[in-house]
Structures are given as structure tokens and as C-alpha cells.
Amino acid sequence: MTTATSGTAAGSGTALAVLLDGLIDYAGLFPPAALPMPEAVAAFARYASGADRAMLGRFVVPAARLAEFTAAVDALPHGAPTPRAPWRVSVLAEASDAMALRDWSATYGACLLIDTVEAKAGSIDEIAALAGAFGAGVTLYVELPVREDPASLVAALAAYGVRAKIRTGGVTPEAFPSPKEVVRFLAACGRAGVPFKATAGLHHPLRGDYPLTYEVDAPRGTMYGYLNVFLAAAWLWTGVTEDEVSPLLEEREARAIVIEPSRIAWRTHQLDAPTLSRFRATFAGSFGSCSFEEPVQELTSLMTAGSR
User: Fold this and answer.
1) Residue closest to 287 by CA, chosen among 62, 63, 55
2) Is 50 exceeded by the pLDDT of residue 3?
3) Got the DSSP string for 32-57?
4) Cα–Cα distance for residue pair 99/104, rounded to 1 Å
């Protein structure tokens, strides 16, 4: 890998910068970080004004903690959002929360913009209920089970005009879907024209064996890299077959992924900045991570090492 600029993971306008733009939704409230609300809010404020802010997406918060969230924002000594620079917020919710979210947005929406809602569904009826509750006011991502073929559920998402979400890990080895399951989900979304986002287990740029929590004696497990997942999705979106893309999800060698200012390549496949821009705009949303610093710093280290 090569470094596009010093000080940040990617230079503005490069293929990598396009891929990374707003890619990380900050979920510091959730395990394994599980920060107290004031700490998570203060961290997001720092990231929103930091050198790598281009990679920062939304603050992820459960609907039940919105009052706590606004109190923590109000207590910030500086770096608070304003109508000129609002924070984007993604709320984990159920259909029954829809009215409360609309009321909250009417009060705080100028500075704290709920532009995304994330929910779960395991049936077409549950998808219909969520779509009916939230309507067209926000972007709705619905987390689907992927142990079985999700094609019928993805088709229902397409019919209701909502998006898909996949859980790519957790704090135990059993929480990680297999590469086959991840590719099958991504391919189903691609065929149906359903944009997706991911959550959990994507703290690192490349696949590898890592501690699953931040405890000293944490168990280790094989985790997906966010470059693996989103580049695999990009090539599936361009028409590369599942069989060709599947090995990318298990790629551990940084040297195998060529990152240059104008393109990203792996094996015989390549993506240029305009293609990646269309991919991000129409298919790939973001991923939730309880750490912002870890994904950013590891990529910077990886790029720096690759340029030597």
C-alpha cells in the first residue's frame, strides 16, 4: 500500500479518500468500548474537528438514550454542533419509537440531525411495520439475519424502499458470520439494488486475528477488515462474481491490495475514484464501530509501512 498524503490515511480526492468518506459511524456507547455518554459525546466532538474528520459519519445512539444524549451535548464546553455544522445522528429504534423520534427532531433537529434509523427484522411483516412507521423522513437500515439465505428479506426491503444492515462481528467468535454468508448478503443486496451498511467487528482495515474486547485477557478471534468488506462489496456491485470476490474477504496481506491515488486494485480487478464515488452514493453506506481511532490509526500505520 502507498500513502497518498502525510498526516491522514488518504489525500482528498484520491480513490481511497472517496471510499473512506464518512465511512465510520461512531458507536462508542456500545461494546466492547461501552463508554459513558459524556465520554462518547466528547470523543465525537474531538473527532468532528480532527484531522481525520472526513472519515467520520454519524453518532450512533439508542432511542431510549436520546434525552441523555442531548444533556451530554448541552454540557460540552466547546465543539458542540450548530445549525451551520450539525451532527448527523443514527438512532437504534423500533417501530414504536417513530413518533418520539419525530418529536425529538422537531426540537433538536437543527443541530442534531437524525438522518438514519437502524432497526432489526426477521420477517417480511416486521419489515413492512418498520417501513410504515418511519416512512420517507429518514434513511432506514434494517438489520437482517444472515445465517440463512436473506434473499427474500432483501427483496422485501427493495419493495418498501429501505436499506439493509449486516452484523459482521461481536465480542465472541460465534458472532461473526462466515465469508460465504457475508458475500451472499452483499450479492443479494446488489441484485436487488438495496444499499447496505455493516456493524460490529470492523475495527481493523484488514482481516486478521485480534482480541475481541479491550480486556487484558480478552479472547481472540478472526475479524473481518473493513477494506475487505467494502472492497468486496464494490467489486460485486461492478459485476464481479461471488466466487471471484469471496477470497478477498479472507485476504490478510496488505501487499495484495494496491492503493494508488487514482485507483485501488486487487488481483486483476481495479476501482477508480469515479466508480467508487458512484458505489458509495448508491450502494455502500457506512459501518458502525465503537472505536474511531483504531480503524483510522491502523490504516495510517498500514499505509505508512507500505510506502517504505
Assistant:
1) 55
2) no
3) TT---HHHHHHHHHHHHTSTTGGGEE
4) 9
Q: Does domain 15-306 have CATH number 3.40.630?
A: no
Grid cell, residue 252, equals 490478510
Rounded Cα–Cα distance for residues 110 and 87 (Å): 9
How large is the average pLDDT for residues 89-107?
97
CA distances from residue 244 to 54, 165, 187, 225, 253 in whole angstroms, order as listed:
31, 23, 12, 18, 17
CA distance 37 to 70: 10
pTM above 0.85, yes or no: yes
pLDDT score of 135 more than 90: no
Model pLDDT, residue 1: 61
Report in angstroms the alpha-carbon separations of 293 from 23, 47, 177, 190. Answer: 13, 9, 24, 30
Q: Which residues in 75-216 belong to E strands, given as ranges? A: 87-92, 112-120, 139-143, 163-167, 196-199, 208-211
- Domain segments of the chain: what residues? 15-306
Determine how β-strand 87-92 pairs with β-strand 220-223: unpaired
* Cα(286)–Cα(21) distance, integer angstroms: 9
If one counts every other C-beta atom within 10 angstroms of the C-beta of residue 78, the result is 6
What is the model's pLDDT at position 298? Answer: 93
